[in-house]
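Pilot study result, target chain (277 residues):
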Amino acid sequence: MATYATTQDYINHHLTNARMCTDDQGIAFNYACDNAGFWVWHIDTIGWSVGIGILFLYLFWRVGKKATTGVPSKTQALVEMVVEFVDGNVKSSFNGKSRLIAPLALTIFVWVLLMNLMDLVPVDLLPWIAGLVGQHGFGMDPKDVYMKVVPTTDINTTFALAIGVFILIIFYSLKIKGFAGFAKELTMQPLNHPVFIPFNFVIETVTLLARPLSLSLRLFGNLYASELIFILIATIGFLQLPLHFAWAVFHILVLPLQAFIFMMLTIVYLSLASEEH
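Predicted structure:
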């Protein structure tokens, strides 16, 4: 395992993404991307989020393919509980009619939950393995190998999810209310008089934009703080085990809650967008 001069170096290393960009020489990585501009790819975030998504799809596909009406397996029972849980929340919170909302809510809940659960993996384990691969496979210094394994601690992930929800909000608003109805909603609420149109437009636009912003920052803030505490606990050496265990037990409740909040707010926002009045 790589050694660090200071605790701050250790923390910064664990909070730094593996980055890839392009420059005049071709593909560049990490420090070479500091001044690369807009197109910098966090390859660890992309890799882990896509990999977890594929795992989720494969697991549910296998369970669906092998589902039986008899006594279900433990995996089938778990999947059925999750599906029924999400379906119940959609039916109670979404007032419109759409075949997309329930699958979307299920995808958001399970995918975000699985990404959050990566926070329970010991913070040094996977970066240490990545360092060994970089050292023995590519001749790199382990200190120059970065690996953040919790995609939701990267604000790019949470913003990407929230932007997807925001696009659906606009889509359903235009589909259900039409352009004129959506424009009226932005200009004639909360004060239904033409003289207040500029004031209403500013207020409603801020409210509309605050929805994806709050979605992304809430999830990112909670997971980033959680990961930072795990890293701080890891700096105390062998005494970290009881503290790590206690914090991990606490997060068995917190991590599903964050996925649930993201799912429920998505359902509520899309329900509001689907109301005709």
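One observation from the pilot: DSSP finds eight helices and three strands in the chain. A full batch analysis is planned for the follow-on phase.
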